[in-house]
Amino acid sequence: MTSAFPYNKSTNNEPTTIKAKVKKIIKSIFPILCVLAGAMTAALSAAAAPAPFPPTPNPAQLKWHKAEQLMFVHFGMKTFYPSDNHMGSGREDPKKFNPVHFDADQWVAAAKAGGFKGIVLTTKHHDGFCNWPTKTTDHCVRSSSWKDGKGDIVRELVEACRKGGIYFGFYVSILDHNYNLHGSDKFDNYGDFYHEQIKELSTEYGPIDEYWFDGFCSEELRVPYEKIAELIRTAQPHAVVYDSNTLVKYLPDRCLRWAGTHGGLGADQNYRVEVDGALRWYPNEPSLILQGNWFYDGKPIKSLEEIQEDYLTTVGNGVTPLMNVAPNQDGLIDEASVARLKEYKAWVDALHANDLANGEGVRVTASSVRGDDPTFAADRAIDGDYETYFATDDGVTEATIEINLGRLQEIDGFILQEYIPLGQRVDGFAIECFVDGDWKTVFEGQRIGYKRILLEGRASAKEQEFPATDRVRLRIENAMACPLISSFQVIGGME
Q1: Which of 92, 185, 241, 463 is deepest in the core (most CB within 10 A)?
Q2: What's residue 83's pLDDT?
Q3: CA distances to 126, 145, 292 from 93, in Å
Q4: What is the CATH number of the domain that holds 258?
Q5: Which of 93, 97, 65 is nearest to 80 (CA)?
Q6: What pLDDT shows up at residue 74?
């Protein structure tokens, strides 16, 4: 009888068509099986990410850190009563407030021209005049000549910031001279009056990125801070709060603190601060004047070199400053000020762009790598991505990252960054250059934080002269937990 299937004698009479089909299937899925096997092997060998080292910044604080610099805008009645006293008296006539050419979009454009990631506006300063048509008092834009009392500085600026894709914050003075003079026929006490103003700002303008509470005389005023904290927690859960030590007790997870001075800060900034017996993430937020006596007074903006020093002693020391630029009585930021801001941004951009660690032939190595996993290798510190970082194994609190530049180079400075979403860890570091056949220490510091900038002859490296070298090394001498280094830049080519 003839079989219905052809047989192949050399293969134990298996049906040729079935065998061919099986071989074809195996051949087609073999690469997939190899990929899956490789992925499983990689997954089993991959090192786990380091655990957080508390305290850590909450998302609002982290957003503030990453903003790096914000434009502070003092604008109000004192703009129209310029003097050496920026406080105001509360007796100013609202009719004088008339910024006929006010243009919120121009302010936003000026901020972006300077590299600022947001604007914090004085919605109310110490004189008590409100830049929004508040229902709490007539001492506000509703009583001004501007737009026949129908304008709202706050709303126009909020909308311009959102359109421009930048951060927005409210400064609201706790002190109010106008209330002290006249009281209120609507509220029995200042605490209720002030709470209602915060409620209007918190509920009528959409999401807010930052509150800025000027604590001047705050201890003398009876303000319901706990009630205000609950309002912010409910109405603006994603806002960071500069609290002047008034609200951190009630909002311990998202406050910024008074730095103790208006101006640049010292090196080795510490974000880990004890509050009511617990360690909290509580960094300093410095505020400083680039133009005016806070409010516009006709004086020009600072020189480029002065603004550079402000940058290096704030951003360069790991904090996010508010840099004040004052609009004039027309409601505009001077053209000369905008031109200076553009020069300043160009300098900051060049500072970060001239990274010798990104040059051709550069090699980077480390003393050890977490789990020997490429995810945490030394090259993560030079890839330009903040979200990747070099790490060591748990318990390893000393490490070195060495960058071979490939050839002899002139060095102007360094930029270092820790990966702070998992906490501030480094508590002692040094930078070394290879000179004349040996390693030479050229800088020593304690903390790195979000960003540390060391520029030869400037700010925290005033006494340093960095030698020409073909190899540089970051040495972590002490860390409170395994160090996480997100960025190690080598600055060169600065004029």
Answers
A1: 241
A2: 84
A3: 15, 10, 21
A4: 3.20.20.80
A5: 97
A6: 98
Do 486 and 391 have their domain in common?
A: yes
- 53 part of a folded domain: no
Residue 51 forms part of a structural domain: no
Q: Is 63 in the same domain as 14?
A: no
Eight-class DSSP state of 302:
P
**From residue 192, how far is each of 196, 213, 226, 233 by CA, in Å?**
6, 16, 12, 18
What's the pTM value of the predicted model, to 2 decimals? 0.89
Give yes or no for a contact between 341 and 302, defined as CB atoms under 8 angstroms apart: no
For residue 102, being part of any structural domain is answered with yes
Number of H helices and E strands in the chain, helices first, is: 9, 19
Helix (H) or strand (E) holding 200: helix 190-203
- For residue 41, the model assigns a pLDDT of 42
Under 8 Å CB-to-CB from 295, ≥6 apart: which residues?
74, 75, 76, 78, 79, 82, 86, 326
Domain assignment present for residue 117? The answer is: yes
Instruction: Say if residue 187 is exposed, middle or buried (CB neighbours under 10 Å; 0-12, 13-18, 19+).
Output: middle
Average pLDDT, the chain: 91
**Secondary structure class of 298 (helix, strand, coil):** coil
Rg of the chain over all Cα atoms, to the nearest angstrom:
29
Same domain, 65 and 132: yes
CA distance linking residue 271 with residue 285, whole number of Å: 11
CB atoms within 10 A of CB 21: 11
Residues 6+ apart with CB under 8 A from 157: 104, 107, 108, 119, 121, 168
- The whole-number pLDDT of residue 87 equals 82
Burial class (CB in 10 A: 0-12, 13-18, 19+), 343: middle
Could you list the residue range(s) of the whole structural domain that residue 125 is in? 59-353
C-alpha dihedral (283, 284, 285, 287), degrees to nearest 10: -170
Beta 210-212 vs 167-172: how paired, if at all? parallel
Q: Which of 376, 307, 374 is nearest to 341 (CA)?
A: 307
3-state secondary structure of 470: strand
Q: Strand 278-281 and strand 272-275: pairing?
A: antiparallel
List, for the chain, all residue ranges whose pLDDT scores fall below the cut of 70: 1-45, 216-220
